[in-house]
From TrEMBL:
The keyword Signal applies. Residues 32-225 form the SGNH hydrolase-type esterase domain. Keywords: Hydrolase, Signal. It comes from the Bacteria. GO terms for molecular function: hydrolase activity, acting on ester bonds. It holds the Pfam family Lipase_GDSL_2. The keyword Phosphoprotein does not apply. Residues 1-23 form the signal peptide. CDD domains: Rhamnogalacturan_acetylesterase_like. Belongs to the 'GDSL' lipolytic enzyme family. This is GntR family transcriptional regulator.
Length: 260
């Protein structure tokens, strides 16, 4: 091999290395919300928040998912209990914060109740403080409860969902309208089969609920996975950079050697 040829090959190799894009840095996705999103204690199973299966959608080398959602929390109580402030302090450029509240804000009889004005102001605080760290906030409308009318049509139960949409529109925040997509999913399943998506248990069916359970708000493992898939679909539809970090698995298709 001539010296000139060798030099040319070395130069080509160096140029190839120079143009290889560096691996993206690892980011953190913070989940902030209520019981429909939260990680459950063992004593609550099979009740499952959609944040649990959501963790497995991403390459662990590229994304760390931290689920900070808590049962019974509203935009107000999450702040009052100092659950948001540590998250805001450790946010880094490129991180994401997925924000889903409403279930506990909108019920006047709950201690977690929040006025409409305060609800929107709290959401705006989460958005503003996230952006101040060059991280990306994503607002999520509250996921649907299982409720049908006599004609078998899904009935909406979240008056605060539109307030989330308003904040997203006014501040150009990516919005995942989980209320609408989950309502469509329940409609697809229908009145009876939709029970499979929720923590509905007959007496004696599970030792955690010896008297059974008739829960139309919290999910079964199947329901949590289905809701997480809806969230992931919207992340892709919104073309967020986060979508590029979803687990990639090679699909091998068996080929029949006799096929022509």
């Amino acid at each position: 091999m001539t010296t000139r040829l060798l030099s040319s090959l070395c130069l080509s190799a160096l140029l190839l290395v120079a143009f290889v894009a560096p691996a993206p840095k690892k980011i953190t996705v913070y989940l902030v919300g209520d019981s429909t999103m939260s990680t459950k204690e063992v004593k609550a199973y099979p009740e499952t928040g959609w944040g649990t299966p959501f963790v497995a959608f991403f390459e662990p080398e590229l994304v760390a998912v931290e689920n900070h959602a808590q049962n019974g929390r509203s935009t107000r109580t999450f702040l009052q209990e100092n659950r948001w402030q540590p998250i805001a302090q450790q946010l880094r450029e490129g991180d994401y914060v997925l924000i889903q509240f409403g279930h506990n804000d909108e019920v006047p009889t709950k201690k977690s109740a929040t006025t409409e004005a305060d609800f929107q102001q709290n959401l705006l605080r989460y958005v503003t403080e996230t952006r101040s760290k060059k991280a990306t906030p994503v607002l999520i409308t509250p996921v649907a409860r299982r409720k049908f009318d006599e004609a078998g049509k899904v009935v909406g139960t979240h008056p605060y969902a539109e307030l989330v949409r308003q904040v997203a529109r006014a501040n150009q925040v990516p919005l995942i309208d989980l209320e609408k997509s989950s309502e469509a999913l329940l409609q697809q399943f229908g009145v009876e089969d939709s029970k499979l998506l929720f923590n509905q248990l007959a007496p004696g069916e599970h030792p955690n609920y010896p008297q059974g359970r008739d829960d139309n708000t919290h999910f079964s493992e199947l329901g949590a996975r289905k809701m997480a898939q809806l969230v992931l679909a919207d992340i892709r539809a919104l073309k967020l950079e986060l979508a590029n970090r979803v687990v990639q698995r090679e699909v091998k298709v068996a080929v029949d050697p006799q096929a022509r």
